[in-house]
Every structure is written in structure tokens, then in C-alpha cells.
Design goal:
This protein has 282 residues and is α+β, with helices and mostly antiparallel strands. It has 2 domains: 53 residues; 197 residues, no CATH class. 23% of the residues lie in helices and 32% in strands. The longest helix has 54 residues. It is elongated.
């Protein structure tokens, strides 16, 4: 009795079907492996990104700039250019549109009303722990009688730690009467750190304590706000000192410095507390 052997064509078709099934199984297994690997990679990438963001915030908190005003009773900062002795320092100032330059104490606020224009120049100092980068295009001023800005400039866009700059503005004055005593204006100065992070707006409140626009003008306070959510972060340099004849008493700069030390470095821009580093005894 002979053995029945399938035709060669049937064997080939069967082998082809088996090979196709094996290939399909391999493809499915490969796709499944890729999906599982990708899911694990995405999770690992998300974890690494979150850790990197935390490290970036911690690093940024240790290199945070902080712009405040310059105390007029304190010694003249070393980077300010002036002539004469330290007892009566004078520096020339001339904003766009001014007919002639004026000589002022570089630590003070300068305001001049000339016709329909107001000229404003205010010094600022970086008392933080990192380089401050100012955004000139975002600087603004608001207050009674002030109209559109005609000019905005800063003396230095990059302000290292413990160094200064000046914010200089020319605005339209929309009223016909003089600027009354007690007038307050607010200058907003946006800035960030050297990495382009920690965007902050320093709002400087100026107050007129003299009988006319020429002053003297004083900085009453400087508020720090996050540029992201515009929520108050802290308030620094509150200068509501007792004074006679509209002028502050001398000898109060130590209190202002102490206030600044209390508010500097307390929290980062995200509200996380920052503890002081312990120095190692050598």
C-alpha cells in the first residue's frame, strides 16, 4: 500500500501560511515591545524633567536678583560716577528733550516739570544674589497727571550684585496746574535673572514732599511682584521716616538696610522658603 504525498504546490502554500503567521506574530510582539518601552521612556523622561525643574528652581533661588532703591543717606555706591567729595556728590543728568543738563546727587530721585513734559530719573540697586537683567521695553509709569511715555531708558541693562542703574523716563503731563505736594507716582521695572528666568516686576512708589515738582521726591516703598501671576511677593525699602520741613531725618539708613536684609532671600519666586546656608568653620 503506497503513502499519499500532498502535491508540492500544497506544501508550498502551507509553508507560506505558517511563515506569514510567524511573521505576523513577530510584528505584533515587536509593536508591543516598542509601546511598552516608549511608555517606560516617557515616564522616565517625565520624572527626569520634574527633577530637573526642581533643581533649576533651587538653583535659581540661590541666584535671585532683587532691585530696590538707593538710600540717600547711605554712602555713594562705588559704581556711581560723580564729581566733588563724598559729602556732597554731584552727577550730571540730561534726559532727551532737556535744554541743559542738571547736577544732582546720584543717590536721589530727579523729577522736573517743563511745559507739557515730565522728566523722571530714579536710581535702583541690585541687593540680591544674582545678576539682574532689565527689560527696558516693559518699563512704565502711572500717576495723577501723567500721560503717554515719550522716552524710556536705563543706564545699565545688566546690573551685577551690589551695583546700580538709573531708570529715565519722559512722559506727557496732561494737567495745566502744578504738581501738588503729596503726589505719588509708580514706576514699574520688569527684570529677570541671568538665565532669563524668575521674571519679576519692581514697582517703585515716588512721593513729592516739596512745594513744587522739583522736589524733593522720595521713594516710599518698592514692591516686588511675579511677572507671571502679578501677585505680591514681598515689599522692601519702606521709607516713611519722620522728618521736619518735608525732609527725612539723617541716621535712619541702618533701619532701611535691616528691613532689606529681612526681606531678601526669604522666599523664591514660587513661594518656597529659602534657608540660610551654614558656614563651615575652617
Amino acid at each position: 500500500m503506497g503513502v499519499l504525498v500532498p502535491p508540492l504546490a500544497d506544501l508550498t502554500a502551507t509553508a507560506t501560511l505558517i511563515l506569514a503567521g510567524i511573521t505576523l506574530a513577530l510584528v505584533i510582539a515587536t509593536i508591543a515591545l516598542v509601546l511598552v518601552t516608549r511608555a517606560g521612556t516617557d515616564e522616565a523622561r517625565a520624572d527626569a524633567k520634574a527633577e530637573l525643574e526642581l533643581l533649576r528652581r533651587q538653583f535659581g533661588a540661590g541666584h535671585r536678583p532683587l532691585l530696590v532703591d538707593v538710600l540717600r543717606q547711605a554712602p555713594v555706591p562705588h559704581d556711581m560716577e560723580f564729581v566733588g567729595g563724598t559729602e556732597r556728590p554731584l552727577a550730571p543728568i540730561q534726559l532727551p528733550g532737556m535744554a541743559a543738563s542738571r547736577a544732582i546727587d546720584p543717590r536721589t530721585v530727579f523729577v522736573m516739570l517743563d511745559g507739557a513734559r515730565v522728566y523722571i530719573s530714579a536710581p535702583m540697586r541690585n541687593v540680591g544674589s544674582g545678576l539682574a537683567v532689565l527689560d527696558r521695553s516693559g518699563i512704565a509709569v502711572e500717576g495723577a497727571g501723567l500721560g503717554q511715555l515719550e522716552s524710556r531708558a536705563v543706564q545699565r541693562h545688566h546690573v551685577p550684585v551690589n551695583e546700580t542703574t538709573r531708570v529715565e523716563l519722559v512722559a506727557i503731563y496732561r494737567r495745566d496746574d502744578r504738581i501738588p505736594t503729596g503726589t505719588t507716582w509708580r514706576i514699574s521695572v520688569p527684570y529677570c535673572d541671568f538665565a532669563g528666568e524668575q521674571h519679576t516686576v519692581a514697582t517703585v512708589q515716588l512721593a513729592l514732599r516739596g512745594d513744587d515738582a522739583n522736589g524733593p521726591w522720595f521713594v516710599e516703598r518698592v514692591e516686588q511682584r511675579s511677572a507671571r501671576d502679578q501677585e505680591p511677593l514681598q515689599e522692601s525699602a519702606r521709607h516713611q521716616e519722620p522728618h521736619d520741613d518735608g525732609l527725612p531725618e539723617a541716621g535712619l539708613s541702618e533701619r532701611g538696610d535691616a528691613d532689606r536684609q529681612r526681606v531678601t532671600g526669604v522666599t523664591d519666586l514660587w513661594g518656597n522658603p529659602i534657608s540660610k546656608r551654614k558656614r563651615r568653620n575652617r
